[in-house]
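Collaborator request, handled under Task 6.
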Amino acid sequence: MHQHLCICPAIPCYPLATRLVLVMHYQELKKPTATGPLALQALPNSELRIHGHQDQPLDFSDLDIPERRTLLLYPGDDAPVLCRSILERDDRPVTLVVPDGNWRQAARMGKRLPGLGHAEMVRLPEGAPTAWGIRREHHPEGLATFEAIARAIGIIESPSAQAGLETLFGLMVQTTIRARGHRDL
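Structure tokens returned to the collaborator:
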């Protein structure tokens, strides 16, 4: 990225109790429109796990520990909506597993990731439509991965952390539009 377009100095740091595990396909990682990796920069208690390499299968059984509760963000109507009442049933800190990809990819990934049998599937409540106009989303509920992470963090942790992450996301959107030669929206 060109130096004048770098948003690195604007990345906040949110040391939260929630641990984020972002799961990306190795081919998505190369795409400049992948938003999930930016969330990793703002959330130090996070990690990236790459899937799709046949010789390196993923196993999430290491996340099954008694000290933490694992929630899998899943874009399906059969998953309960992530809300305060779900969180109040179990006061352990959360490990949030977020599959990166479009709606269909995330739904498939959520059901196929080995070692996540202990995880509780949750979905986001309905909210504002996506602000990410760079990639097409065929589902009206579809969000950029970063937006989904920010909204989940807002429910699990605090609205102020969500607002800060959304401000960073807005900066990413504007910078991406400028980098593509378009005027600011």
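The cover message to the collaborator said: "The chain has five helices and five strands. Strands lie at 19-25, 46-51, 69-73, 94-99, 120-122. Please let us know whether this matches your experimental observations."
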